[in-house]
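Bench log, entry 3. Co-assembly request; chain sequences pasted below exactly as received.
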Amino acid sequence: MRFRNMNWAPYLLILPSFIYLLLFFGWPMIASLQLAFRRDSQILPLRAEPGAETPVVGELERGTTVEVIDVQLFETQKAGGLLTEKVFWLEVSGPNPEGETVTGWALRGNVFVQDASRSDRGTVRAATATLRAEPHPDAEPVGELPRGTALTILEWGKVDSKVAAGGLLQKPQNWLRVSGETASGEVVEGWVNRAPLFLEDAKISAQGRVQSGEGSKEWTLDYVKRMLRDPKFMQALRTTLLLIVIILPIQFTLAIIMALVLQSQLKFNTLFLYIYAIPLGISDLAAGLVWYTIFTQNGYLNSFLQSLGLIERPFIFISSTNKEWIIVAIVLAEVWRATSIVMVIVVSGLQAIPRDYLEAGELFGASLWQRLRHIILPLLKPSLQVALILRTILAFQVFAVVVAISGGDVVTVLANETYRWYDIGAYNNKNVAAAYAGFIMLLSLSIAIFYLRAVRTQEEKEAAA
Amino acid sequence: MTTTSSTTQAAPLVTKVRLRDLPVEQRRALLAARLRRAGTYTVALLIALWILLPIWLIGTLAFSAPLDVRTYPKQAAPIPFSTETMEFFLNARGVLPATRNSIVVALMTLALSTVISAPAGYAIARYFFRGRDLFRLSILAVRAFPIVILAVPLAVTFRTWGIYDRVYSVALMHTALTLPTTILVVSSVFASVPRELEEAAKVFGCNPLQAFLRVVMPLALPGIAASAIFTFVMSWNEVFAAVLLTLENRTLPALILYNLDKSGDPFKFAGGFFMLIPSLIFIFFVRRYLFNMWGQITK
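Structure output for the full assembly:
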């Protein structure tokens, strides 16, 4: 019964959580840095068939020039068979480290294809294929070709993404400019998606280079460079910072108002508290969907504006040409969802302010604004500071709200890029994903240090004065 | 919630005094106080409306018939009421298994997180030991740690360990995410149990374990339950790590997120509302403990 005197009892009690945090925070952090800065991809295994489960038939070194023999769109079942994910596999052939020529299948992401001269003939495989004026699913149709029509392929184009509101995944889509005879014997020319076509001789006889694989370790900045060169990087960084700059002031003002309201002992105070606290339990995904119902083309905002007679027909808020409106929707969703946490912190801070101070202020006839400016806010500073650090760091991770509202294509953020680089269906490069994650970490750390130092220098200044 | 603020002091006076009996300046002051109070109520109601209206709107769509969901302009109330859209969502392929996964993950997270954090919370609340402040500080630091940076390496590691795409691996990750918060909350719960009661139990012959189980635990239990509920909600809501760590055994948020671009509006509306339900229910139960929970992090 001497536990209290023997000092090891508390250590024993905190040991499990200590180990757990070390295992799931300390260690992944190091692993993340390794992923981002260590080249672990020197050797690319080649498979007998498309698909990661098939046996390895050979190995190629990174940087080896290979010949691309065939390309196949390989489907894997995902989400319990609900979805099929299409990934390109290439059959490549090249010299292995021992100098023998090996042939096998590799993921498209691991092989950089330099020049793709491709097939120039094909037939329509689906019931009909619609030719369009532009390589885009929404482009104006210029003709229909029935099943079995022979086509001449004039040009290969690649559209990088579906610019659809829900287009979470950015998958490259192949569009072909083809010409063929319609049912009425007329020759038409236009763009068509690769999917409804059967391409005869679809072999890409092209040069490629192995750009990643698995194997030995060495330090590298390649992934970081690749992240920096990624055209989406600056866009994501800008949007993330912009969101922080817009959201935080609104959030803090609203949170302070909410806290003051809760402190003024209204009737139904507990009801108000409950309502104000509801968003604490709302996920970013749900919040995004909630605001999607409002901002979508047939959504509530348009319904409301139209019923007021302000607009004639629905205004498309969420489209690639309306970035500003997407930002507005994201800001509203984030303010709606994440103000409660700031409010709770502010209320706890308010409760710690001695009542005498407030009463003294009132007694001397200070207005609400004066009391706020000279009594409440200065005393609230520590709480606000914590809330500020917390909110800023969390804001760097904003993800599901953006994806739910805009699909993450037109407006993208850092966390979304991390996910995209990681995702097997998109870029499938965990190293660049780790570089993104590390960048977010760096931003969070520097912002925390910046705040803390700013506060300290101010305190020193006050102490000196 | 005990301190009163400023503008409200005049309120109890108003009860029986008639305005016209008062001198002019008092009458003015009273009127001004009432006006201020009315203003406060207006602001309070407006904020409540700002929070509730969007929930009402998505709820309206979730409980309208699919045909009404697609109409434009949208209706402002679910008339006629219909569970068809909701049923469509729940019967969409993958949704029920994903819901089950989500519940299992959240329960596992709740159990693991509570079991691991309770001793640590107790230690922080009751003992002064070397390194206590450092431990507290590192928990605070970890609490604000980006999920994003953890999820990528963990997903890669789980792959090499062969526990990728498992329900329990998501639970392991979620426990890591919720643990810091839970430790802080539990420690504040224990700190709010008077130390004297524990001492008294010992005076009356309980050993420390008995004192803990019979005196401290019953008093701390509601608070710990609140923290457990909150852990459940955090896990239920988490999407980034879940979508990275799973492929086929998706949790509900991961499934919805992954299917966003492939699904129509009714799926999104019903899914969004379905995900809201736990927060509506659970926040109601834990509302008294909110400041215990989140107030902690400022200290």
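The first helix of chain B runs from residue 24 to 62. The domain at 93-298 of chain B is CATH 1.10.3720.10 (MetI-like fold).
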